[in-house]
Specification:
heterodimer, A: 161 residues, mainly alpha, two-stranded antiparallel ribbon, 6 helices, B: 258 residues, 6-stranded antiparallel barrel, 6-stranded antiparallel β-barrel
Chain lengths: 161, 258
């Protein structure tokens, strides 16, 4: 059962990795914005396999993204994905306590934190205004959360949340 | 509880901490502008957090420095006092040297090692004696006038009877016609000149000098100055009160006339 689940997620992971590499990015005030599909997948991993797997998965995927996107700032996405995985791990702990809305809010909060960390550590050296940076973080998190909601609507009947 | 079991139970938190450490290590191993900017931010935060500690350390350091400075000030003050004394001594020695060179007398300088001004016999001890060819009876002066005479001579030191000693007597001249008189010390730096006839004119401010008829003292050395003259009808002579010009109480160096 677990092996089946793992192979299922493994297949999805490879597809998402490929999609993440291929997905078009757009520029917002000289900041490249691309939906983070791996973050969406990380949410499902956290909900399905718990905190330990989610943390390892988040760290490894963050590191892969770091090495493939920006070699000069290795560790930024590993850090932000680890924090996001840690925050998403709490969803399992409070699955019987929180309402669905509260869980969505928490997921959005995790996404926002992820992009906030990424934004701070990645954009800190660039001469950008605080508002521009904040807008980019908001856009990033909203797009990723929208994709999560889309997937949730398509797969949500599986009973993750 | 076993520590491994504790770690296992908190594996998520442990893993999270490890991933944070790893991520930060990787991030801060870079040298890009963003990393440097973040490092600068962290330095700012650290300086803000450590501000009370710095302030406390600053206070402690200031206190320590204050102690050191106080000690230094004390030492410098002491040194300054020594230097002032040395300057005074230097000036005095220079003036004494000039005095010795300008004087027609053959002078031998000596250092006062002790004085006995409270004893019944007022004396000074000087650091010259037989080895420096000093003899009993030699007159001793300072730059202002007669100070006394040598009454005892050792090999390396001598004792000088001071002009303020009650048993001291000296033939002097005073007045308009430089009349002969006998100087007798009375109290402190004062004395009287006996034997001046009432017919002679002596006024306060007149100089008193050695007469030169003595075997001990050469003529015309300053002894003192007249401060008051009393004409008592019941006495046969004028009562001339004199102030000694030398300074027996505060002499460091003296000259012996050879």
């Amino acid at each position: 059962m677990i092996a089946k689940k793992l192979s299922y997620f493994g297949g999805i992971w490879i597809v998402i990795l490929f999609l993440q590499a291929m997905f078009p990015a757009f520029q917002f005030n000289s900041i490249s914005i691309q939906p983070d599909l791996l973050l969406v997948l990380l949410t499902y991993v956290a909900l399905s396999f718990g905190g330990t797997v989610a943390l390892i998965f988040g760290f490894v995927n963050g590191l892969i993204q770091d090495l493939t996107t920006q070699a000069s700032l290795v560790g930024v996405l590993a850090l932000s994905k680890s924090v996001a995985a840690y925050l998403l791990y709490f969803l399992n702990n409070y699955s019987q306590v929180w309402t669905r809305k509260m869980k969505f809010l928490w997921i959005y909060g995790a996404y926002f934190t992820h992009f906030l960390i990424y934004g701070y550590f990645y954009l800190r050296g660039k001469e950008l205004g605080l508002l521009v940076g904040f807008d980019a973080i908001l856009i990033h998190s909203i797009i990723s959360f929208s994709i999560y909601l889309l997937f949730d609507r398509l797969l949500g009947k599986s009973g993750n949340l | 509880m076993n520590i491994l079991r504790l770690l296992y139970l908190n594996r998520v938190h442990v893993l999270f901490c490890m991933s944070l450490i790893l991520s930060f290590s990787l991030y801060f191993s870079n040298t890009s502008g963003a990393v440097l900017a973040v490092k600068a931010d962290l330095a700012d935060i650290m300086s803000l957090v450590l501000k009370p500690q710095d302030a406390y350390r600053g206070i402690m350091q200031t206190r320590e420095k204050n102690y050191v400075l106080q000690e230094t000030v004390s030492q410098l003050r002491l040194l300054n006092t020594n230097l002032i004394h040395l300057k005074y001594e230097n000036e005095k020695l220079r003036s004494m040297l000039n005095y010795a060179q300008d004087s027609p007398l053959s002078l031998k300088s000596a250092f006062v090692v002790n004085n006995h001004l409270s004893d019944p016999v007022h004396t000074l001890t000087i650091n010259s004696g037989n080895n420096d060819s000093l003899e009993k009876g030699m007159p001793v002066i300072d730059m202002d006038g007669i100070l006394g005479k040598i009454i005892a001579v050792g090999d390396k030191a001598s004792i000088v009877q001071l002009i303020t000693d009650r048993n001291f007597r000296m033939s002097v001249r005073v007045g308009e016609r430089w009349n002969l008189g006998l100087f007798v010390p009375t109290h402190g730096l004062f004395g009287i000149v006996e034997g001046i006839p009432k017919s002679q004119k002596v006024v306060p401010g007149d100089l008193i000098i050695t007469s030169g008829i003595s075997d001990i003292y050469p003529a015309e050395l300053p002894v003192g100055e007249v401060v008051d003259v009393k004409n008592d009808p019941e006495r046969p002579f004028l009562q001339v009160i004199a102030e000694i010009s030398s300074n027996p109480t505060n002499s460091d160096y003296v000259f012996i006339i050879q």
